[in-house]
Design brief:
Helix 3 crosses helix 9 and helix 5 packs parallel to helix 7. Helix content is about 40%, strand content about 5%. It is mostly helical and about 220 residues long.
Length: about 220
């Protein structure tokens, strides 16, 4: 959704606007994935939920009838997909699990490692009638069931001021100087900075253990 489409997420690594701080070991992973970070994906768009990413009607014309998810996979042939969805499912939370299963299964069948990421908010409970933590609970459950990586971002950002979000409680915040990929202690008090750090850490583990084992 908009939290993935936003230029504060990952793009600074391709733009050179980053500072790894004490996480210098991640430079090899930045180098390995360079050119992928600034990708504008049809599967990441403001307002997307699990239904829209599967619906060809929400894909650009160049996708030729494919869903946004399948279009992205066919277009870029990624090894890994970082999947953060669920905020936009607050009013349709009952269908979240079935849609999310399809996303996982499409990813696996197309040779993509899906990294499932929990979200900072609990809108399905705050704005609707879902049990507290419903969607994040489903994300964790499905990661175990399909034996795919889980990044529990909620656990990380909930320790930050305002839970790492803006006043609306679901968009991640970032520094006023736009240094969302700087990993020094003061900058790591922001949601996007932690999101970029944890995403890069997951990519680093997958690169070393799965994609380039032994390096």
């Amino acid at each position: 959704d908009s939290n993935s489409q936003h230029p504060a997420f990952l793009k600074p690594f391709d733009w050179g606007n980053y500072n790894l701080g004490s996480y210098g070991y991640l430079q090899s992973t930045v180098d390995f994935f360079r050119g992928s970070f600034a990708n504008d994906s049809p599967a990441a768009a403001g307002g997307f939920n699990t239904a829209k990413v599967l619906d060809p009607a929400h894909a650009p014309s160049y996708c030729n009838g494919q869903s946004p998810l399948e279009c992205e996979y066919n277009r870029t042939r990624p090894s890994v997909a970082l999947i953060l969805l669920g905020t936009g499912d607050q009013h349709n939370w009952q269908s979240f699990e079935s849609n999310y299963r399809r996303i996982i299964e499409i990813s696996i069948n197309m040779g993509v490692i899906p990294v499932l990421i929990t979200k900072a908010d609990d809108l399905e409970s705050r704005d609707n009638t879902a049990p507290y933590g419903f969607i994040n609970g489903k994300i964790a459950q499905l990661a175990r069931e399909y034996q795919v990586p889980l990044l529990n971002l909620r656990q990380v950002v909930q320790r930050l001021p305002n839970g790492g979000t803006t006043g609306d409680g679901f968009h991640y915040n970032y520094p006023g100087d736009n240094r969302s990929a700087w990993f020094t202690p003061d900058y790591l008090q922001y949601g996007y900075n932690q999101r970029n750090l944890t995403a890069l850490q997951v990519l680093d583990v997958l690169r070393r253990r799965v994609i380039q084992p032994g390096t």
